[in-house]
Design brief:
The chain is an alpha/beta fold. The protein folds into five domains: about 130 residues, Rossmann fold (3-Layer(aba) Sandwich); about 100 residues, Beta-Lactamase (2-Layer Sandwich); about 100 residues, 2-Layer Sandwich (Beta-Lactamase); about 160 residues, P-loop containing nucleotide triphosphate hydrolases (Rossmann fold, 3-Layer(aba) Sandwich); about 130 residues, Helicase, Ruva Protein, domain 3, CATH 1.10.8. Helices cover about 45% and strands about 20% of the residues.
Length: about 725
């Protein structure tokens, strides 16, 4: 069933509109009519719905048919427009047809409405089909143009009889001409590379004469100096009598040519690389037994590529007799089904002149979808020179080892003397007391025994610990020093043994302890007497079981560490007072070394003074020629409660303030020092500390602090201030 014809009727008389509809239906044209009589209704109806036909009266109370026609032609030109009026004059009718009306029918001759509508609908259908055909043609041409652009291929037509030429858009682009220009033979010749013009001209003339197809490649020389490579393919046709034409395609093959040139260059580089590295490539088809060798592979095996077709037999013919059976088995394994592993083989070949070469070969199996090996590809490198060099190197190594053993035996005594002279280079002095200490150091250093170094502050206990480490078999590993008095008691366990992430508040990540850092080396625990009781237990376990756990850890860690400790306290009194464990003391006191105070080795003072003057004057850029005798007498007579550290600080301070080349010391600097701290009574100790704090304005650390004046570490002084309940802040100056 056909759909109803949708008609928009511009008519102010409803009876006339019904009459028109009845006339159409009587002729079998079923319609659905919408009647309007004003401009706004007319425009709204066309905007909201699509109509197949517009019928319009010429004269309306507030509108007219010509105005409606103009609106319809401007916005809906595809809809047929027929005037149905009783007052349409000839001039008006001609104007309406000129504007675009399809037809006009007088109301007095309404029988003409049927053929007029039929003709209008037929013409509208034909216009629609033509429009669709034109759109399809434009789309097809666009697709063709885009395909030519993407494939860099243009089309052409050449009438050899008339010389007329047709080019597509892409052909214009390829030749570098504007599409507005008419293509000619002259313009084609202008673009052809001068070296190719003669060959192209001969080919085109021959094709035109013999009416044969064209298939040739040539170059274009563009105005900017660039070169394009073209392939031209044309076929003859004589569709019109007396006219002969070629139609075909022009392809820009520049990229392909450059890729081919790059491939040739790459192959050339590969051949040169194989020649320089003496590496040949090969491929063996396990099904057909076809074999391919590179040029370098021919050279390595000693075959002529012009006369020899490579085969597996040719290869095995060159393999050394002692290696041939192994290589035959290798070829069988490489061709085995399911083999997926690369093969690496070293073997020898023998050339016809008797030369033996050593080869290193790597083969890679290529598998079919079924899992069968279809081909084995690989490379073989001539490693004859490397093999000879390795043999020569091994011989040289044997000779070097023999000479090394001989040199070792000859220099044992010399190295021992050097060690004796150099191991104590930072320990200055020649006194019997110091020699006794160094003798004990030399005896205990080669062992792994625990050493306890005792003595007053500033006597050089850490230097002795370093000397023991340097003389031991652990000297190549770390020497880690920890001052137990300088670390708060709540953190000392974490410092020594480390902790896991989240083991306590603030443990944001895992941290290695000093025992782990010193693994394989030496751990020096200074001020061991200040160790908290709970940490003493953990340290005792490490010394007994040689293992520990990080705080928060679940697994023990083996400890390969030598422990050396030092203190200026009387540990036996601390044991009696219950502040130090006796079992830990016995573990630490395996080999005790007592450091003599400076007042017991006064004969070393001149040597120490000279050593420190030289050291600090060089650092300060000063030249000290002599030492004031009064100063030397003062230094030798002073009791040095701070021992060598105090002497060092006094000399450094004197170098700083010294303005001449004669060294001197201000006697007032010794006002607060009379007895060493170990010989002071608590009241005297407190008085001396308070005097030093008063002299330094409450400063503890630093070159001008109380610790420097008293010749003791700042951490030790802080500990004494706490134990003697001294308020150091009362000495602060505003």
């Amino acid at each position: 069933m056909e759909s109803k014809l949708r008609i928009l009727h511009l008519e102010d008389d409803a009876m006339d509109a019904e009459l028109v509809q009845d006339t159409l239906e009587a002729a079998g044209i079923v319609s659905n009519v919408t009647r309007v009589h004003a401009e706004t209704e007319f425009v709204a109806a066309l905007t909201e719905s699509g109509y197949d036909l517009i019928l319009a009266d010429y004269t309306l109370p507030s509108f007219d048919g010509l105005s409606a026609l103009k609106i319809a032609r401007q916005n809906w030109p595809h809809v047929p427009f027929i005037f149905v009026s009783g007052t349409l004059g000839e001039e008006i009718a001609i104007e309406a047809l000129t504007i675009g009306a399809t037809d006009y029918v007088f109301k007095t001759r309404l029988s003409r409405i049927v053929p007029s509508v039929q003709r209008a609908l037929r013409e509208a259908k034909e216009r629609a089909e033509l429009s669709r055909a034109e759109e399809a043609l434009r789309r097809s041409e666009a697709y063709l143009a885009e395909a030519q652009r993407l494939s860099h291929s243009g089309s052409f037509g050449w009438n050899s009889s008339t010389g007329e030429i047709y080019w597509s858009q892409e052909t214009f682009r390829i030749f570098g001409y504007e599409p507005s220009l008419q293509p000619t033979i002259q313009r084609v010749v202008e673009r052809i590379h001068p070296e190719d013009r003669l060959a192209v001209d001969q080919s085109m003339n021959l094709a035109a004469r013999d009416k044969t197809s064209i298939d040739l490649e040539h170059r274009l020389l563009m105005p900017d100096g660039s070169v394009k490579y073209l392939r031209v393919v044309g076929y003859p046709t004589d569709r019109e009598p007396g006219s002969f034409e070629f139609v075909g395609a022009v392809s820009d093959i520049t990229e392909r040519k450059r890729a081919e040139e790059e491939l040739r260059r790459s192959e050339s580089y590969l051949l040169e690389a194989q020649r320089l590295t003496q590496s040949g490539s090969w491929a063996w088809n396990v099904r057909t037994h076809d074999t391919i060798w590179s040029q370098e592979m021919y050279r390595i095996l000693g075959y002529d590529p012009k006369t020899t077709k490579p085969t597996l037999s040719h290869f095995l013919e060159r393999v050394h007799p002692e290696d041939r059976l192994r290589m035959e088995r290798q070829s069988v394994l490489e061709s085995a089904k399911g083999t997926r592993v690369d093969s690496v083989t070293d073997y020898r070949i023998v050339l016809p002149d008797g030369t033996i070469k050593h080869l290193h070969s790597v083969g890679h199996p290529v598998l079919h979808e079924s899992g069968d090996v279809t081909e084995v590809v690989g490379t073989s490198m001539d490693v004859t020179e490397q093999h000879a060099a390795r043999v020569a190197l091994e011989t040289a190594f044997e000779q070097i080892q023999a000479l090394r053993d001989q040199l070792h035996n000859e220099n044992i005594a010399l190295r021992e003397e050097i060690d004796k002279a150099s191991m104590f280079e930072e320990i200055v002095g020649e006194s019997p007391a110091l020699h006794a200490v160094l003798s004990r150091v030399a005896k205990v250093a080669p062992t792994d025994s625990t050493v306890l170094i005792t003595g007053e502050t500033g006597t050089g206990k850490e230097l002795i610990a370093r000397a023991i480490h340097k003389r031991s078999h652990r000297s190549s590993r770390a020497f880690v020093s920890v001052n137990c008095a300088s670390i708060p008691g709540t953190l000392i366990a974490s410092e020594l043994f480390g902790h896991e992430k989240g083991s306590f508040t603030g443990a944001l990540q895992r941290r290695l302890g000093r025992f782990e850092v010193a693994q394989g080396g030496t751990l020096f625990l200074d001020e061991i007497g200040e160790l908290p009781a709970e940490t003493q237990i953990a340290l005792l376990r490490v010394l007994q079981e040689r293992e520990f756990q990080r705080i928060g850890g679940a697994h023990p860690i083996r400890a390969d560490v030598r422990v050396i400790t030092a203190t200026n306290r009387d540990l036996e009194k601390a044991i009696a007072a219950g502040t130090f464990r006796s079992d830990l003391f016995y573990r630490l006191n395996v080999f005790p070394i007592e450091m003599p105070p400076l007042r017991e080795r006064r004969e070393d003072i001149p040597t120490l003074v000279e050593y420190f003057i030289h050291r600090f004057s060089r650092q300060a850029g000063k030249r000290i020629g002599t030492i004031e005798k009064r100063t030397l007498d003062l230094l030798e007579s002073y009791s040095w409660p701070g021992n060598i550290r105090e002497l060092q600080n006094v000399i450094e301070r004197s170098i700083i303030v010294c303005e001449t080349d004669q060294f001197s010391v201000d006697p007032s600097w010794f006002s607060v020092k009379s007895l060493p701290p170990s010989q002071m009574l608590p009241a005297q100790d407190k008085k001396a500390i308070e005097a030093a704090l008063a002299a330094t304005g409450g400063r503890v650390s630093g070159p001008s602090g109380a610790a420097a004046q008293l010749g003791m570490p700042a951490s030790t002084l802080e500990s004494k201030i706490r134990s003697l309940r001294i308020n150091k802040y009362q000495f602060k100056t505003v």
